[in-house]
């Protein structure tokens, strides 16, 4: 079968032929139909310091997907062959105190598919049946393929009360862009998003941000003044990983403000802790999603009309995966979807067409 593989340490990803994996009794075999490239995949592609110390090789990469179940293990009762699914790529241990207390998103032994173990950029891949999420009514295949990062955005946005509040989002990557739409959906008054990338700021505006600020060209304080934000933001979501953005968040939060931290920051950066102390700010680290609480919440928001379709900007057949990685690395995209051919379905369609021919 085809798979996108990190064969050995070093830059690049390659489409290779690898054996079809065998499933265990508690797993299902999934045939992905649409997969999505994550910023994490770009780190692995570039083989940066984080990837070098985290990712074993050879490895099939990828963790954002939707597809259909083609085989179920002998112990699996919750999923059937033929069902359309997405799934949680964080595999938790199930026996640590946090897992046992139903807080598996805090499991210290979490393994992530496509990072620690083989991932979903393949014709077939195995997943623990308890990690499968059935795609709800009315959710498109493309949106189901980005449930993973959408879950990051929903988990971040629901960490604080945003209704009628002024919210700052620093970083207009796909998660920041989606968080802007979610914050508006949740009733935030003003949602201001900052970045230095005009393409992505435009997408955030399309998604519902009240105002966008290119911090290389504009002054955030001026925009706040225009919008009548005097005391500062009630909530800030740091989604860029930029130390300057973190500083700006701390400076513009109002006393008692809350800061969610999702962007990965470089090691050893310093902040003005007295801002945190004197303004009595609350800082919260956010990683992954709450399983399956966040998944249910995002499904409900989508069914209630949250529209995240604008964040998907590029689609490529899997053979053109390199184009997808290139456009991501240029920063000229939102989410990039890689499409896999469902050979069985193509075959069926072909047969039906033949039968429909007049004799
Ligand atoms: Zn991801
Ligand atoms: Zn655990």
Describe the structure.
- The chain is an alpha/beta fold and 359 residues long.
- It folds into two domains: 2-146 and 308-348, Alpha-Beta Complex (Quinone Oxidoreductase, Chain A, domain 1), CATH 3.90.180; 155-285, NAD(P)-binding Rossmann-like Domain (Rossmann fold, 3-Layer(aba) Sandwich).
- It has 13 helices and 18 strands.
- It has helices spanning 39-46, 49-54, 97-100, 141-145, 147-157, 174-185, 198-206, 220-226, 243-252, 273-278, 293-303, 321-329, 343-356; strands spanning 2-6, 14-17, 27-37, 59-60, 64-72, 84-87, 90-91, 111-112, 125-128, 132-134, 167-170, 191-195, 211-214, 233-238, 253-261, 282-285, 312-317, 335-339.
- α5 (147-157) packs across α6, α5 packs across α11 and α6 runs parallel beside α7 (198-206).
- 45% of the residues are buried.
- Mean pLDDT is 94; it is low at 349-359.
- One zinc ion binds at residues 92-93, 96, 98-99, 107, 109.
Beta percentage is 15-25%
Describe the main β-sheet briefly: 7 strands, mixed
List each distinct ligand once.
zinc ion
Based on DSSP secondary structure assignment, what is the total number of beta strands? 18
Amino- and carboxy-terminal Cα gap: 37 Å
Q: Please name the CATH topology of the largest domain.
A: Quinone Oxidoreductase, Chain A, domain 1
> Any idea what the radius of gyration is?
21 Å
CATH class of the largest domain: Alpha Beta
Class of secondary structure makeup: alpha/beta
Q: Let me know the CATH homologous superfamily of the largest domain.
A: Medium-chain alcohol dehydrogenases, catalytic domain
- List low-confidence stretches: 349-359
Tally the structural domains: 2
Count of alpha and pi helical runs: 13
CATH architecture of the largest domain: Alpha-Beta Complex
Share of helical residues:
25-40%
Q: How would you describe the shape? A: globular
